[in-house]
Amino acid sequence: MSIKITEGSNVLRIATAYAPQCGCTDDSKEQFHRGLEMFLQGVDEGDNVIISGDFNGHVGSARDGYESRHGGQGYDARNEIGTMLLDHAEAADLAVVNTFFKKKNERIVVEAARRKST
């Protein structure tokens, strides 16, 4: 879901996203990422963009080549979905904003189950 707010020559596009979870089919994951790419391709240069949601991936704590997109305040290791998210951010000149703010570990980990934290 997305909205476009215009005031004079200023444009703000706000979108929400919820990526398929790890148990979903590869087709549904690819469909989500194609939809995200289509949304970003429809954004005009100069538009301001906010995408909020759960991308069901980990961008990790290391910036590793994404210094302008990743603030270095993530959690644990990056996974494949986290890399795709950072690639989308790079292509669209966006940033994963919550990685620019230091948080306590209990604020970062939103789900804990037996040896797994996400």
TrEMBL record:
Top-level division of the source organism's lineage: Eukaryota
PANTHER family from the UniProt entry: BUCENTAUR RELATED, ENDONUCLEASE_EXONUCLEASE_PHOSPHATASE DOMAIN-CONTAINING PROTEIN
UniProt-recorded name of the protein: Endonuclease/exonuclease/phosphatase domain-containing protein
Gene name of the encoded protein: Acey_s0079.g1245
Entries under InterPro entries matching the protein: Endo/exonu/phosph_ase_sf, Swc5/CFDP1/2
